[in-house]
User: Fold this.
Amino acid sequence: MKVEKNASLLHHNTFGIEVVAETLIEYDSENELEQLLASDNCRSKSLLPVGAGSNLLFLSDFDGIVLHGTIRFIETVTENDDYLLLKVGAGTIWDDFVAFCVQNNYYGAENLSHIPGETGAAAVQNIGAYGAEVKDIIHEVHTIEIETGKKQTFAQEACRYAYRQSIFKRELKGQYIVVAVTFRLEKKEKYNPNYRQSETHVGQPGQPTLQAVRDAVIDIRRRKLPDPAVEKNAGSFFINPVVLKKQFDQLVQHYPDMPHYHVSDNEEKLSAAWLIDRCGWKGKQLGKVAVHNKQPLVIVNKGGASGVEIAAFAKQIQSSVEAKFGILLQPEVDYIAGESKQK
Ligand code: EPU
Assistant:
């Protein structure tokens, strides 16, 4: 276990924001986490469990304990001719797990290649890309309850997954720490039903292979999205808005080229990138903050921006999209202010 007082969080958030945590603790096993949660120190302070910080916006220093797990393993739980269940430590780098699946010819994770972050956070956020969502391959999520220190496993259905949503982001926010996730991967060839329509298949002659799909996804992401190691960002800043059919019908009359995705009889999902683009934000920079010039859904810290500056910039985007389209974009990144509301 590693304990650091007055710890810089610069390398714990991909926005590259220079804030300090009163304490930063790294644990590397479930047992260590259980001990930590039972300690007086943890019981009396605000706790903020983090993954790789690829979805966080720190608005100030954190006056409490930031907890980061480095529980990393991939083990087979059960296997038959058709599929296998793999249990993966929450601190495992997400893309290492995807690469492992592709190398071993396990189907299901390949469209989610190259997404930054760790496996536990992926299960909390229900990460998604190119027609796939991580919920589609999650079997169960293993957690520890912060208040009691008890282990609890959530079956996939109990996680209440929806587009970029889970029970851990809503009803149970701040109450559980994910320690491992069990995934179901297919052993028989089974590509994501959406891959043929998606760009992931463009330019690939003949039958796809898992590696070819992974390579195509990585190539698209490299072309469209900024590399957080070079340009500080947290991926999509906003969630694609889901609007009622009635509102959609009105909008589409004015903007017939507006991209949209069917959600249900009553709802359509719109493209936040398109809405932001149409408000003239693409590539725009104000002070130290900018909208990425290839993907307007991504906000970039051009160097030394504070979380407050980034939040103010995001607010301006929200206001102009709301004024033009009547839609209030919701941030997908988690704003962290001072103390988390965990306790
Ligand atoms: N668009 C524009 N202008 C642009 C770029 C895009 O108008 O400059 C419009 C286009 O019409 C395009 C549409 O936006 O068809 C959608 O763009 P894209 O395919 O890049 O997907 P997205 O909806 O903007 C979502 C995820 C991404 C994921 C991609 C690919 C969310 C919040 N974001 O973005 O996830 O990589 O789909 O499937 O759902 C992330 O979460 O950090 C992330 C990058």
